[in-house]
Specification:
By secondary structure, the protein is an alpha+beta fold. It is 27% helix and 25% strand.
Length: 175
């Protein structure tokens, strides 16, 4: 369950093509382009340099969702929003979430999360630390599933597409 890392790269991104960036010239002007991982920095760079991306923004779309974990309403701010021109010349609007593949829940044929097994230590024991860590991991999977379900619904209603981009798609990890 090696999925938590407190040493993520964080910073502010400076685009080479600021005219395309909604954070600098659009409806959220003045909101900096923030990356909270090296994966997000790679994605921001791709959006900035890709000629088919007409406009893009970082952390500009907010989606309400309800969490079964704590029984409360929350707001989910997606990592990126962009508009691109397809090979057919059509325009598409996208919301993108960038996550390590370890934080993407696997789903069964009914769309339910397949949770990992709670494995004992090498000595065959289950201690409280291991149980707490497993529960924390399961809650991350639940929370992401809740957020992304809300995002897909929002996208259907607003003419967007939604995708979770992982380290695998970025070519940083092999699955």
């Amino acid at each position: 369950m090696a999925m938590f890392n407190n040493n993520y790269l964080k910073g502010t991104f400076s685009p080479k093509h600021p005219e395309k960036c909604l954070n600098l010239n659009g409806r959220v002007q003045g909101h900096p382009i923030t990356f909270r991982s090296s994966y997000e920095k790679i994605m921001a760079n791709w959006l900035d340099l890709n000629n088919n991306i007409l406009e893009w923004g970082s952390e500009i779309t907010e989606i309400p969702y309800f969490s079964q974990i704590d029984g409360k309403s929350h707001r989910y701010i997606t990592d990126f929003q962009f508009t691109c021109k397809t090979k057919d010349g059509e325009l598409e609007k996208w919301l993108i979430e960038v996550k390590p593949s370890s934080q993407v829940p696997r789903l069964d044929e009914c769309g339910q999360i397949i949770f990992p097994k709670l494995e004992p230590t090498a000595r065959g024991k289950l201690n409280q630390k291991r149980i707490d860590r497993w529960q924390e991991y399961c809650n991350v999977l639940k929370k992401n599933h809740e957020k992304w379900t809300a995002a897909r619904d929002w996208c259907r209603r607003n003419g967007f597409k939604f995708k979770v981009v992982t380290d695998v798609e970025l070519g940083l990890t092999h699955k």
